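Q: I'm building a small set of examples for a reading group on sequence design. Run inverse folding on the following structure and report the sequence directly after it, with nothing in between.
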């Protein structure tokens, strides 16, 4: 599993010209699910995303508070293209989990985020839809996360 996390001042998702989701200050998570991902990777990523310290504390100390510490919002967008492997200049997505499986896996991911945090602060796009994602990156701060299994695969 791969995630790109961006600290944002605001972010939104539009489908077919209609805004379906938006957040204020918080993080935007672009999530790519691989064929090999299991519940173990899902739990790891939920924990890491919610506890990632990308915000400053009350005294201005950087990198000391998480989205949960600050009670900020989270916008999640499923993005299979994060599982891309380039073959020359052509993207290959055979490592991405097929849409039929990935949709329930992604919904489970959202449910786990909501259980671990505050459900009303977790927003998402529309799985499988052609979306426009507007991200107002704050900093800019962009962090790439990979589940332990993905990191192990790369080392082999």
């Amino acid at each position: 599993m791969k995630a790109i996390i961006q600290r944002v001042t605001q972010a939104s998702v539009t489908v077919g010209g209609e805004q379906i989701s938006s957040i204020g200050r918080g993080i935007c998570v672009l999530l790519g699910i691989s064929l090999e991902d299991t519940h173990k990777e899902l739990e790891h990523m939920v924990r890491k995303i919610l506890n990632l310290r990308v915000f400053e504390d009350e005294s201005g100390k950087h990198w000391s508070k998480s989205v949960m510490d600050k009670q900020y919002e989270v916008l999640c967008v499923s993005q299979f293209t994060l599982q891309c492997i380039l073959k020359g200049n052509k993207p290959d997505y055979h490592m991405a989990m097929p849409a039929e499986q990935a949709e329930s896996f992604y919904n489970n991911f959202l449910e786990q985020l909501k259980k671990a945090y505050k459900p009303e602060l977790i927003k998402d796009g529309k799985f499988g839809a052609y979306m426009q994602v507007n991200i107002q990156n704050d900093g800019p701060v962009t962090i790439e996360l990979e589940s332990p299994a993905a990191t192990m695969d790369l080392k082999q």
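The longest strand covers residues 131-146.
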